[in-house]
Design a protein that fits this description.
mainly alpha; 85% helix; single chain
Amino acid sequence: VSPILASRFIGIFSFWLGFLMLYLIARRLLLPPIFTAGLVLLYATTPVFFTHVFSGMETMLFLSLMLASLFAVVCKRDGLLSLLLLLTSLVRPEGVAFSAVLFAAVGIERYRESTGTFKSFFKHFLFIYFLPAAAYFAWRFSYYGLLLPNTFYAKSGLGFHIPTLVDIARFIRRYFAVPLLGL
């Protein structure tokens, strides 16, 4: 299969998967039908999504996996949640941060429910998410020499070094100084 066709298929499939997950989350939360309709209508008509659907990039896949993970949370399917968080972390590095936040939130909720529920949740997370992710990230670190390399930088051999971080700080200072001071 042509990589271009495959990436477009994945983008289109991911768009509709995200649409379905958002709808199912709203239904599971027993939101009023008018609110659910408005929510999925906003999702379906967001112009930037159409750019991402056909771009061949991973954005729509990442978004749909995040929504599927949230659906697994509201359905209390901890094994499925761990698998979806692993896939989310493999698609983009931000998935690791998303997984950490969701792990903490769901872990606190499961602990409040009962110790047994928390132990089961933790066991699923450990064996389905953490151990495979740790093995993958250890291999990636040994291969690239960086924990979270940007793939462009990893291929060119630059990575996140002091000059790169200084450039990022200058960019933030120049373009975000006023909003950050406002906050």
